[in-house]
Amino acid sequence: MNGSRASQGATIRFDRVTFAYTPGGRPAVSDLSLEIRPGESVVIVGPSGSGKSTVLKLLDALVLPQEGHVLVDGIDTRDQERLWDIRRRVGLIFQNPDNQLVSTTVEREIAFGMENLGLQRSEIARRIEEVTERLGLGKLLSRPPHKLSGGEKQRVAVAAVLAMRPACLALDEPTSLLDWQGRREIWSILRAVGDEPSRTVLHVTQFPDEVALGSRALVIAGGELVFDGTPTELFAGAGRAARWGLRSPATMTVAESLRGAGYSVPEGIPSLEDLVDAVARGAEGRAT
To answer: What pTM did the predictor assign?
Structure first.
């Protein structure tokens, strides 16, 4: 196995799932059916309170459906005897990293989950070296997690989960509490992880700009799946995304303005780096 990659991604299936937090209350998720294939990178977006985060809680068996079934590699989340198998397959990153950092140093934090898996010390040390190099955490290993910046804390939380090599990485609005620099740090990690065909990624976000981090976009509104397609398809055409309260990504809006000014910008939802390159190429062309 190379780096912190899982051997294969997980297959996720929701079969007519309904869940409400209170008996007789309005369902947070209603009659939801979808299938996510191994290796897919999926971004889930929707209005506040639409049920996005509930989907991840159902996936990790933190809550159980009142109707229907959630299957992780064919394992029903209602099967309490297989709960450990599900948790080994699904690595969940919370919105607030402080809610999942429990150790006294970054090194101990990353090792904690692997120790629970019963891995040998030599394997734990090897994986710590791999993930800290990959996520740029080497200089922080002896630091207390609670003294880190928000972006550093979230990177440590991601590293601790990746070190356990889950088949599915599930992230619940991982950048919502971060500043701009912290968000960009997490974006770079999500782009790299999303490109790995050996891991399934589900990323819940409230930011339209992050939809382009996945190859597939799902819109949840009122607890129902109302869109399933590519990020570009979601924001193509006037008013499609707006009907669910979603604005176009800022990079898409800027790209349209640059094209109007004669710059060559990739279609779809370009990254910030694409926009900078387009402006630089345009400046060079004008200079010559």
So the answer is: 0.87
